Structure formats: C-alpha cells, structure tokens
Amino acid sequence: MDLFDAIINRRSIRKYSGEPVSREEIQTILRAAMYAPSANNQQPWHFLVIDDIELKDQITRIHPYAKMVKDASYAVLICGDESMELSKGYWAVDCAAATQNLLLAAHGIGLGAVWCGVHPREERKAEMKELFNLPDNIQPFAVVAIGKPAEEKPVPQRFKPERVHWNMW
C-alpha cells in the first residue's frame, strides 16, 4: 500500500468481523508505533495489550465512546511514562505520534482500528489507572480498538486550502 494512500484512506473503524487478529499482527503494529518521533528521543510510551473480555467490558463502562472495544479482537491502552521525560508535558505529544503510527500500521496490514481518547479527561485517566493498576508515573493516553474490519467508509474531502498560510498569517 502506498504511504500517501494509506494516510488519506485510513478511517476510524468501529465494527469488526470477529475474525481473529494474530499476536504477530499486534506485534507488527506495536513495532510501527515505537518508531514514532518523540521529544529528545525519549520514547516515553508503554502499550498495554488487552484481550480479556472482562477488562474490555470494563473499558466500555469507563469510556462512553469506546463501546466498540467489546467487539474488537484487542484493545491497546497507550500510556506515557512521566519519569522518562526530559521535556515536561511532551509525553502526550509523543504518545499521539505513536498512536498515529499504530493506526496507520493497522490500516496498512488490513486491520480496522479507532482511537478513543483518554487524556486529558482526568476522570477517565483515574479510572483506567485503577482498572489496570498503573504506577503513579504512568499516564493513560488513549485506547485503540483493533480488529478485522466489518465496515468500509468513504474518504471525505478534508483538504482546506484556506487553512494554509505561507510565511505569515
């Protein structure tokens, strides 16, 4: 798949076929996530891979917009490690880059995925920390549901030339 096509054609997939996703496929997309750029190359991310049905059900109770996690083969909780930061506050930016890489890699190998934000919602973060027994220095950033897609979505027109400014506003 051409990189530009992958970027333009990737969509948030919320319906899954139920076909199994292999651990090798998960490893492939996690590898891509870990090649994201990060501030000072600190790579302050951790990835919690969830396939336990009860835990996925608990995620749907914590996050009102993550109901699709129940039907996904896996959920991945992307977390930032504040103890690894040289530049305070950049863990969230770094985790966003890793999440985007993960989404593009999933699309590239034929999987469907959707990003469900946890950060900066303090109540969601607190409940995720409790559910997964996260250490104090680990901050939950996002949950990504992953599965074999059971839906196709059209590609909208998103390029807006009026939002491009050259040299000055």
How would you characterize this protein structure?
- By secondary structure, this protein is of the alpha+beta class.
- Helices cover 33% and strands 18% of the residues.
- The protein has helices spanning 3-9, 23-33, 53-62, 91-108, 122-131; strands at 45-50, 74-81, 112-117, 138-147.
- It has a four-stranded antiparallel β-sheet, with helices on both faces.
- The relative contact order is 0.23.
Observed structural traits:
169 residues; alpha+beta; NADH Oxidase; 4 strands
Give the SSE map.
Blueprint: H1 3-9, H2 23-33, E1 45-50, H3 53-62, E2 74-81, H4 91-108, E3 112-117, H5 122-131, E4 138-147
Antiparallel strand pairs: 1-2, 2-4, 3-4
Helix pairs in contact: 2-4, 3-5
Please provide a brief summary of the model.
With 169 residues, the protein is α+β, with helices and mostly antiparallel strands. Helix content is 33%, strand content 18%. It has a four-stranded antiparallel β-sheet, with helices on both faces.
Strand content: 15-25%
The largest sheet has its strands arranged as 1-2-4-3
Instruction: Please identify the structural class as seen in this structure.
Output: alpha+beta
CATH homologous superfamily annotation: NADH Oxidase
For the sheet with most strands, the description reads: 4 strands, antiparallel
Q: What would you report as the Rg, rounded to the nearest angstrom?
A: 16 Å
* Total DSSP E strands: 4
Helix content: 25-40%
Which architecture per CATH? Answer: 3-Layer(aba) Sandwich
Helix-strand sequence: HHEHEHEHE
Total domain count: 1
By CATH reckoning, the class would read Alpha Beta
Q: Outline the low-pLDDT stretches.
A: none
Q: How far apart lie the N and C ends?
A: 36 Å
CATH topology descriptor: NADH Oxidase
Mean pLDDT: 97
If helices are DSSP runs of H or I spanning 4 or more residues, what is the number of helices? 5
- Coarse shape: globular
